[in-house]
Amino acid sequence: MIPITFFRSSSYNTWDFCEQDFFISYVLKFKKPAHHKATHGNISHKALELLAKKKLATQNGKNSFKDDEIGEFQTNELTLEKAIKVGFDYYSKIETSRKWNKEDFDICDKYFRDAITKWNGAFNPLNRKIIAPEQYFEFVFPYEWAKYDFDGKDGYLGIKGTIDLVTEIAPGILEYIDWKTGRRFDWAKEKIKEYQDLKNDPQLRIYYYAIRKLYPKHKIVMTIVFIKDGGPFTIPFDDSDLKKTEDMLRQRFEEIKKCKRPKPNKTWKCKAFCPFSKEYKKSGKSICDHFRDETADLGIDKVIEKYADKDKIDSYGSAAGTNR
Length: 324
Known about the structure:
Blueprint: E1 5-6, H1 19-27, H2 36-59, E2 64-67, E3 71-74, H3 80-94, H4 102-117, E4 129-140, E5 147-150, E6 153-156, E7 158-170, E8 173-180, E9 185-186, E10 191-192, H5 195-199, H6 202-214, E11 219-226, E12 231-235, H7 240-258, H8 269-273, H9 287-298, H10 300-307
Parallel strand pairs: 1-7, 8-11
Antiparallel strand pairs: 2-3, 4-7, 5-6, 7-8, 9-10, 11-12
Helix pairs in contact: 2-3, 2-4, 6-7, 9-10
């Protein structure tokens, strides 16, 4: 069994995830090329993030600000045009699995422009009082149910991630904003997400939990903005949801601790979306089947020892824990 830190990944919903995919990506640390549509979203998000950092610098009277991935910017020189170009140039250079062209740029630019102009500019970072762009969080649950023992080391379950944007809409009231460029669709259940689906969404529940812990004296408003598919949805959480979220995590963690061998969740989506459906070297098997069979033959501990860097399994910013 392996210790797990829950986190969010744009490549799939880690709640209804394929355990085999998770095992290969985040434990064995095999790089999964980003789908180009996901990268379109990353590019527009980066441009919005830069605007939020510009506004925060302006609020604080600073002439410059730093983006950890790209570098330093002069506050008054970051225009809308520069923000989206910088985001596009950055991601098109690191995502080299395909060629990027003007059509890609135009798609990203439209997402970005729609996010800042639709709904009377209500979700434009420049029109907000910024509290924290890319708010990082990390918590450990000091409960008996959250204990684990792995390879002679014990500890407690933790959660970590990064929240798109935290803003202040009135004294003592914060609004979380999460921009979505994808469809408002639950691929696991193959249905449109409605309010109740969003209220039960593990990501939003965990984010509400995190913000309440980070800002315990504030009231919290949670808004998810589907840029091209449905617009903004404000989800009504309250403090009664904190215990519900802990119970949700406990149930999932107990399921994970009982798992002796990762299991695939094979559907038509494997070949359509997952690069691990491709052939692995000269084995004649898919990457997924190769590691599943090797795990069966050698055992999960030996496979981890053979392929994974255990010191980085739970590291943030590497494949394990990467959050976007």
